[in-house]
Design brief:
The protein is an all-alpha fold and about 190 residues long. It contains 9 helices and no strands.
């Protein structure tokens, strides 16, 4: 036999609300602070608060940019592998031939990339090749090395381009363009 139920004498006995009310009759509001007027804040305090809350300028690197640069520096500092030696021997003619083969695979020309250099086009194509893993939050050279260690056979021409850009001290070549787009800062005037 089931146990007998207790009968409560009202909502306070149960500790719950008897009915829900969605109308304006029983409106509950949060306590709020009175709005602060500009007259109540001394000018010296307002200036010091404004100076304390400085936003970094557009030229200041983000934490993602700093992390990717550190990744690239650690990859470059490692001893040279056989793949890097092969990439050093890749000529500009081989790189041009590689890019011509990639562009011939397309039905239409890349109109939106006409102003880019061939090296940047090759690197962006590598960024968007998902078979080598994600390109967000990782340096391109580290992504290439990871793909090589997983036997995904990334193009040696991409590594050659990365090495040429590294020799030019082009730090922007280390970061995927998609990563730049996703973490960009917009300045609204």
């Amino acid at each position: 036999m089931p146990p007998a139920r207790r009968k409560s004498s009202g909502p306070s006995a149960r500790g719950a609300q008897s009915t829900l009310s969605f109308g304006n009759r029983a409106k509950v509001t949060k306590p709020s602070l009175a709005p602060v007027s500009k007259k109540s804040i001394p000018d010296s305090l307002a200036v010091s608060v404004a100076n304390a809350i400085e936003t970094p300028g557009p030229e200041a690197p983000t934490t993602a940019e700093i992390a990717i640069e550190e990744q690239a520096l650690t990859e470059v500092a490692k001893p040279k592998t056989e793949a890097e030696e092969r990439a050093n021997r890749v000529t500009d003619a081989q790189i041009k031939r590689y890019w011509k083969n990639r562009s011939d695979e397309r039905k239409a020309p890349r109109v939106h990339q006409e102003e880019l250099s061939m090296n940047e086009k090759i690197l962006r194509h590598f960024d968007l090749s998902s078979q080598y893993g994600p390109c967000i939050g990782i340096a391109r050279i580290k992504r290439w090395n990871r793909a090589e260690s997983l036997n995904l056979h990334p193009p040696i021409e991409v590594l050659a381009v990365l090495q040429k850009e590294e020799a030019k001290n082009n730090t922007r070549a280390e970061r995927a363009y998609v990563d730049e787009l996703l973490s960009s800062r917009f300045i609204i005037d």
